[in-house]
Amino acid sequence: MWTTLPAAAPLYRVTRTEDTWDDVLLGAGAFHGDGGRYSLSGQPTVYASEDPLVALTEFGWHAGLTLSETLGGHTPTLNYPLLTSAKLWRFHLNTAVALADLTSPVAALQLGFPAHLPYNPHPHLYYSTRTIATKLRAHKNPRPEGLLAPSVRTPVSGPYSPKQVVLFVLPAPTVVSHSLAQRATLLDQWDVEMEFGTAGTHASVMVADPLIAWSAPWVRLSGSNPVPKFKTRPGSKPLSTGSWFTLDVRYTQH
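The chain above was modelled as a monomer; its predicted structure follows.
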């Protein structure tokens, strides 16, 4: 059930374009928002991953959901084409971090949840997963600084199952003498452009287009260096800058 994120293991996180490096590990979005899959409103939490594609895919799912909810509102006010932007950060922590691995069968037994619960693809009902996270935040021996959970929005690739690293922003010296932000080192940063195009014709969406490829947004990165490949994922390659590529975003488990 327990695992360790090694010191200096690179992590990736996507944030808003207006965020600076000082904002990345504060967990302010989770604190001020409605909460996430593993956090209640008022609980500062950082959602990251060792795999850059997981960070981008999770962002792509949220961006598509936001656009589709706008489209389904009383007075749809979409701007065309369907473009959104963000920042991708690469960083590491200079200490090892204790995590609860929710993909472990032992975790399901010890915490009392069905093994398939963390893989639930529902977009909004997070009561059960938030309850698990709340139990872990109060766990004493060991006291985890977060959890390892499946990324439901990222496709499985052979034996590789994509995962999120969910970090609890705990007040120091609860676990260690320094906060996450104080233990973090920035390694690189990219600007992210994302566009949702038409289904079939692969063109920019305009008001007259009936079908949108919600599960296949285009992404273009801007930065000084390519994003390094994540060796654990089969067939992984560096993500180049300056050219568009397509993400595979899952809205259901399979």
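The first strand starts at residue 2 and ends at 5.
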